[in-house]
């Protein structure tokens, strides 16, 4: 029976490596290589357009803005920026999977055309009937759907839960270590507020380190019975060493820092999907696609 796993990978620190002259080519580690050696066993995958699971209305949430825009012009630029981020997310994932040599790919133009015909909006999970159409008409063995959950700013629910959990855990640990010394605990709470705020309130600088949180979730569905067979979520917040390798004119821009974090996440998600070693013959046999167990 095929297993269904959810992987949550929170990244506390990343040493970055950037390739090329900042033309959208970012590589942190070599791509994980697929163990599926038979070319005929590499599944055909259709990657749906990524959605945004949060509302962004200000250009300054995504880019360094040095001018005041009229509301109409800002709305236009926000929409354009969001579309570009969605395209970049899919391109980064497709590129990473291609580097791992474990899949064949349905051309994005064909995927988009069928998704539009089926009224499948970006970020919306496909139903079994829609997945059947991707198999029947495009020959897809897998359909990947993803959503960008946070990009530059963090919704207040996550902010409150994250800060509360972080501060409570550290206070308890410090209390046990210092016999509940009130001065030590109070100092730690103050430091936590100082260091956590840049992350949870949407990014900023602290001691020369930039915090630009990005969080992405992705799922893969088989197209015989329409079951989800892979799911992962990744988060990255620290644009650290890579910024120093970039020209000074671009490394301080918010969009640069966010793009680096998005690239790291998509590479990690791509590697995780490659590690599953899905085989076309198994995906195409209904008898092997029993309902997955979630654990």
Question: Mean pLDDT across all residues, rounded?
Answer: 77
- Strand percentage lies at 15-25%
Supply the number of helical segments: 9
Helix content: 40-55%
Gyration radius over CA: 21 Å
Order of helices and strands: EEEEHEHHEHHEEEHHHHE
Instruction: Assign an overall shape.
Output: globular
Task: Give the end-to-end Cα distance, rounded to a whole number of Å.
Answer: 13 Å
Please give the largest β-sheet: 8 strands, mixed
Unreliable spans are 1-26, 156-163, 198-209, 290-295
Number of domains: 2
How many strands? 10
Structural class: alpha/beta
Would you kindly provide a written description of the structure presented here, covering whatever features stand out?
It is a single chain. With 295 residues, the protein is α/β, with parallel strands linked by helices. The protein has 2 domains: 3-150 and 217-294, no CATH class; 155-201, no CATH class. It has 9 helices and 10 strands. The strands form 2 sheets. Strands 2, 3, 4, 5, 6, 7, 8 and 9 form an 8-stranded mixed beta sheet that branches. The chain has a two-stranded parallel ribbon with strand order 1-10. β7 (204-206) and β8 form a beta hairpin. α4 (156-178) runs antiparallel to α5. The longest helix has 30 residues, at 71-100. The chain is globular.
């Amino acid at each position: 029976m095929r297993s269904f796993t959810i992987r949550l990978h929170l990244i506390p620190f990343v040493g970055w490596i950037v390739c090329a002259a900042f033309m959208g080519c970012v590589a942190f580690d070599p791509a994980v290589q697929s163990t599926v050696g038979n070319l005929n066993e590499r599944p055909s995958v259709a990657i749906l357009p990524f959605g945004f699971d949060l509302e962004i209305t200000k250009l300054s949430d995504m880019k360094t803005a040095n001018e005041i825009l009229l509301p109409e012009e800002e709305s236009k630029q926000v929409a354009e920026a969001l579309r570009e981020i969605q395209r970049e997310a899919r391109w980064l994932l497709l590129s990473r999977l291609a580097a791992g040599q474990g899949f064949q790919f349905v051309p994005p133009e064909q995927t988009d055309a069928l998704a539009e015909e089926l009224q499948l909006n970006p970020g919306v999970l496909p139903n079994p009937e829609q997945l059947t159409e991707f198999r029947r008409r495009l020959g897809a063995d897998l359909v990947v759907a993803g959503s960008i959950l946070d990009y530059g700013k963090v919704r207040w629910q996550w902010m409150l839960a994250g800060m509360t959990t972080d501060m409570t855990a550290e206070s308890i640990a410090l209390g046990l270590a210092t016999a509940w010394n009130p001065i030590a605990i109070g100092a730690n709470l103050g430091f936590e507020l100082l260091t956590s705020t840049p992350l949870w309130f949407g990014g900023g600088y602290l001691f020369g380190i930039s915090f630009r949180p990005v969080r992405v979730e992705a799922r893969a569905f088989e197209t015989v019975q329409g079951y989800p067979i892979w799911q992962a979520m990744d988060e990255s917040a620290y644009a650290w060493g890579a910024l120093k390798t970039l020209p000074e004119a671009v490394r301080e821009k918010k969009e640069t820092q966010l793009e680096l974090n998005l690239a790291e996440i998509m590479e990690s998600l791509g590697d995780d999907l490659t590690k599953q070693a899905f085989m076309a013959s198994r995906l195409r046999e209904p008898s092997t696609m029993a309902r997955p167990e979630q654990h």
